[in-house]
Amino acid sequence: MDDKKRLILHICCAPDATVPVDDLLEEGYSTEGFFYGSNIHPGDEFEKRAAAAVCLCQTKGIECNVMHYDPEKWNRETKAFATEPEGGKRCLLCFELQLKAAAEYAVRSCAGLLTTTLTISPHKDPSVINEIGEKVSSEYGLIWISKIWRKNNGFKRSVNESKKLGLYRQDYCGCIYSIRNR
Ligand code: SF4
Question: Is the pTM of this model over 0.85?
Fold first, then answer.
């Protein structure tokens, strides 16, 4: 397939990726998963989520690239927003860091398209995520595939599918700050 039609799917976690992977494959995209994870605390939680993302991708027959875990870098980059509430400025920066890492991977692997699983969450604003995705994609010369996965019962479908597959499901967003909201 033409490299420009290859799509990198940024995966925030395996349960959230169930519906996007199925739908993108059905839409004919040549899809590869990318798991970032340096926002996740502690390290053994990262391992569980990364393993679940790889397992999901294997089940669906697509590749999954797991980025090197570097929580110190993520902590340095977001330190100024440590006291922000969940959904505030730290989260916007966190989305951008994740999508930039996925965009760098897309460029390195000669894919032309980028999207994310983040818009399946009922706790996150999909329009803000798509705006960040558009900005990051244009910086990296990629095309952003704008999706709101939570539409049409997307979140409910993802919960059912991840239960069916026995995927690990976390009870907090990921970073050390979000543990207090679990
Ligand atoms: S709460 Fe979630 S989105 Fe916000 S900074 Fe933490 S890991 Fe990132």
Answer: yes
From the CB of 155, is ligand 1 less than 6 Å away? no
Per-residue confidence of the chain (182 residues) as pLDDT tens digits? 555 589 999 999 999 999 999 999 999 999 999 999 999 999 999 999 999 999 999 999 999 999 999 999 999 999 999 999 999 999 999 999 999 999 999 999 999 999 999 999 999 999 999 999 999 999 999 999 999 999 999 999 999 999 999 999 999 999 999 998 77
CA 95 to chain centre: 9
Write the CATH number for 104.
3.40.50.620
- SS3 percent helix, strand, coil of the chain, rounded to 5, is 55, 10, 35
* Ligand 1, atom 5, residue with closest C-alpha: 91
Q: Is the CB of 91 under 6 A from ligand 1?
A: yes
Domain count within the chain: 1
* Contact criterion met (CB below 8 Å) for 36 and 10: yes
- The whole domain housing 107 covers 3-181
